[in-house]
């Protein structure tokens, strides 16, 4: 079974986000929202093509990668 690819660099995808693919620009927007004190729900309201599961999975992946770098 192949892992779901959550973050890609593909400008062709941003205009029509499909299923579990989250372009890097959307992931950056998510981080910007959270850094600015906005909630995940506020981000999801502004980006309705992203599901809560996708956003949480992207954050979990980023956390995992960061923790691995710190080991």
What's the helix and strand layout?
Elements: E1 7-8, E2 22-23, H1 24-35, H2 40-46, H3 52-70
Parallel strand pairs: 1-2
- Count of beta strands: 2
Query: Helix- and strand-based class?
Result: mainly alpha
Unreliable residue stretches? 16-21
* Structural Rg: 12 Å
- Write down the overall mean pLDDT: 77
**Gap from first CA to last CA:** 27 Å
Summarize the helix and strand pattern as letters: EEHHH
Number of alpha- plus pi-helical segments: 3
Tell me the strand order in the biggest sheet. Answer: 1-2
Q: Give the overall shape.
A: globular
Please give the share of residues in helix. Answer: 40-55%
Could you describe the 3D structure shown?
With 71 residues, the chain is mainly alpha-helical. The chain has 3 helices and 2 strands; from the N terminus they run E-E-H-H-H. It has a two-stranded parallel sheet.
Brief write-up:
By secondary structure, the chain is mainly alpha-helical. Helices cover 54% and strands 6% of the residues.
List keywords for this structure.
single chain; 71 residues; mainly alpha; 3 helices; 2 strands; 54% helix; 6% strand
């Amino acid at each position: 079974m192949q892992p779901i690819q959550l973050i890609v660099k593909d400008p062709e995808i941003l205009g029509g986000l499909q299923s579990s693919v989250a372009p890097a620009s959307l992931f950056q927007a998510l981080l910007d929202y959270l850094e600015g004190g906005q909630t995940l729900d506020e981000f999801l309201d502004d980006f309705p093509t992203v599901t809560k599961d996708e956003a949480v999975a992207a954050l979990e992946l980023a956390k995992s990668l960061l923790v691995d770098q710190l080991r």
